Amino acid sequence: MAPSFKDGNSLFEFVVRDGNGVKGLVDSGISKVPDQYIQPQQERIENQNGISHELPPIDLSKLDGPNHDQVVEEIASAAEKLGFFQVVNHGVPVELLESLKDAAHKFFAQPPEKKAIYCKDVSPSPNVKYGTSFAPEKERALEWKDYISMMYTNDVDALNHWPKECKEVALEFLNKSIKMVRKLVEILIGKLGVTVEDSRIDAFIGSKMVNMNFYPACPNPDLTVGVGRHSDMGTLTVLLQDGIGGLYVKVEEDIDAGKKGDWIEISPIPGALVINVGDTLQILSNGRYKSAEHRVRTTSTQSRVSIPIFTIPKPTEKIGPLPQVVEIDGVARYREFVLQDYMNNFFGNAHDGKKSLDFAKLDSA
Question: pTM score, two decimals?
Fold first, then answer.
């Protein structure tokens, strides 16, 4: 029999503070979504409101052949228009991607007490955090998601402190992906018509974090969201999604896949990785590249996993539009700031579309 939560506080204690997460809630036998998870009408994701679209993947192996320039154009165009694209022949073995999904399911299948050891205030490492939703203390409605977040410092630290159920595959995923990420950042900066030293390119992706997200099957998916509307904070995100789907992106300007304001679903392609632009790259490019607003729906039939790698400058880095880009554009659209200040603002508030970018916008822009 499902537990009866007398009020919002007891549910919050069970899900958030005690580390049971949404999965603990589902495993307890609930037959309907608790009120704390019911989203306002305007935030709900109805399938008919999202156009399912299989973005033709970009074949990164062609960067080494006669079609190099065409592939570079495809990458830059996708970053300018939608802020999302899918890549194949990316250098990450498909078998590793399958192992990653299995490892994520294995981690979240554990009893709550095995996962709760990584909760924020008790985790044996400041670089590993298990949690639920995004900013539970700040949200009007909670998001239907549990996660484990693993910040990378070095291989030894990762193997010593990341959860044993997933540390090897998560670390291999990161190490195999980072060369691709660096190449993409190099291409995108180059397409801005500016020259940047190698050390600066490295600085733009100086911090790296691997997350594993778990979206349990939901009794009322029409009332909830897995993740609310937001843009990512960093430079580029690499995302492995499973075959279930549910990732929606908002179109900022008319493209073949949809009109401005439409939400399109990024349909999973076996073996592909999803790449998306974050706020940092939008700011560095002075608005040329778009950090796409996106969200995730829940499903009633199967639990879903996704594994993103977030690449971010180190918190002490100063970030602002690249001076040469400002010179070309004739105006700076964003101010310079220390990234830690942006992070404090980003993580200190509930998801709210691309409102996080307001922190950096100049009034005159």
Answer: 0.93
